[in-house]
TrEMBL record:
It holds the Pfam family CxxCxxCC. This is UPF0260 protein J2T57_002344. InterPro entries: Puta_zinc/iron-chelating_dom, UCP006173. HAMAP family: UPF0260. Belongs to the UPF0260 family. It comes from Natronocella acetinitrilica.
Length: 180
């Protein structure tokens, strides 16, 4: 039996600021922070910059009460901006949406539903960042161009009748995105 209990998370916000500028200014002999640090060792700015802005962590998930199996939907939080793939009120999201999670290194290690393509998960698993990640590409647009984001594939929760949630189950949010 699938419960209508939503699990939400906000990866980190992804602000292209000082951390991105620092990467761009690096000498060729230096390695970027995501290649040299564990998640636990990152500064707040480094942590925030790891979010690729895909929005996959913001889709509602359903958990089977008996088996614990997770089913992804194409439904996103009412705060989600479907064009930018960002939270519309990131600073206040956990106050406004009590079940929204603030990702931590511990949660990255323990959340079974964190998308395979998630930068936090990739770093934790030693897979590095994908070519389309903004820290690698230098552009926020590559996450969308690569098909890694939820742009054009999700619906806001306020537009879905509660009786229709099971009809919105899909697999793509949990699938990995090819590195090529």
């Amino acid at each position: 039996m699938v419960t209508n209990r939503f699990a939400r998370a906000a990866c980190g916000g992804m602000v292209l600021t000082e951390a991105h500028s620092a990467v761009a200014a690096m000498h060729d002999s230096e390695r970027p922070f995501w290649e040299t640090k564990q998640l636990d060792e990152m500064t707040a700015k480094e942590w925030e910059s790891l979010c690729d802005g895909c929005g996959r962590c913001c889709v509602h998930k359903l958990e089977d009460e008996d088996s614990g199996e997770i089913a992804y939907t194409d439904i996103v939080c009412f705060l989600f901006d479907c064009d930018s793939c960002r939270c519309g009120d990131y600073a206040n999201r956990t106050r406004r949406v009590p079940d929204c999670l603030q990702l931590t290194p511990e949660l990255v290690r323990s959340l079974p539903w964190l998308p395979q393509s998630c930068a936090y998960r990739r770093i934790e698993e030693g897979r590095g960042l994908a070519w389309w990640h903004p820290l690698v590409s230098g552009s926020r647009d590559t996450v969308h161009a690569a098909g890694a984001s939820v742009r054009g594939r999700v619906i806001l929760e306020q537009h879905v009748h509660p009786a229709m949630v099971d009809e919105r189950i899909t697999d793509w949010p949990g699938e990995d995105v090819p590195d090529q």
